[in-house]
Amino acid sequence: MRLKPNHPRTGPANHAPKSVARALSCSGLFLGGLFMAALWPTDQAHAEFRVCNDTANLVGVAVGYRGEDGWISEGWWQLPATTCATVVPGPLQSRYYYLYAEDASGSGRWTGYTNMCVAEEEFEITGVQDCFTRGYQQMGFSEYDTGREESWTVQLSEKPSTQESQN
After folding, report:
1. Is 132 exposed, middle or buried (0-12, 13-18, 19+ CB in 10 A)?
2. pLDDT at 86 over 60
3. Using CA atoms, how far apart are residues 167 and 161, in angstroms rounded to an integer?
4. Is the pTM of this model over 0.85?
5. Of 69, 76, 77, 79, which is the most exposed, with the fewest CB atoms less than 10 Å away?
6. How confident is the model at residue 161 (pLDDT cuts 50, 70, 90)?
7. Strand pairing category for 59-67 and 48-53
């Protein structure tokens, strides 16, 4: 598996666009930004499917879900040690989501019983049938029943296992 620095849908974590940074550096806008930040609720939850890497190593993550055109698997997100990433932004549309992860050092995998397709490079694959004949690999993904929640977080711990703990 070759890990990409960031998935195109999420971009670099915790970095504001340069135009925003320049605008906030202007004194009038900066003070206005501070005022707005004081009024903004800090405990407001974001709707998303997140994965947190609670290990000491870099982990590559792939996600699977039911889309409009059928089953979708996509990856790779690079999660450095003790960081989190949003792998499905916005309110969750499905009840079940699937996750596969590999420790970049080769010392562990988080797997499950649901087979989906993955690729060596960054990918978005429609369908879970005939992975090998279509030029992909097949991996076992863990199933997460979100119970129709709008947000869900999976914690990857130091001991990779099948059906890793959730929420």
Report:
1. exposed
2. yes
3. 16
4. no
5. 69
6. low
7. unpaired
Instruction: Give 163 or 103, the one with higher predicted confidence.
Output: 103
**pLDDT of 8-64, one tens digit each?**
333 333 333 333 233 333 333 333 333 333 333 334 457 899 999 999 999 999 999
Which candidate, 154, 145, 46, 150, places its Cα nearest to that of 101?
A: 154
Token pair for 115: 């087979």
DSSP letters along 38-58, please?
HHS-SSPPPPEEEEEE-SSS-
Q: How many Cβ atoms are within 10 Å of 57's Cβ, its own excluded?
A: 15
Can you say whether the dihedral through the CA atoms of 74, 87, 94, 110 is positive or negative? positive
Q: Is the peptide bond before 110 cis (omega within 30 degrees of 0)?
A: no
Q: Could you tell me the two tokens for 27?
A: 């004194």
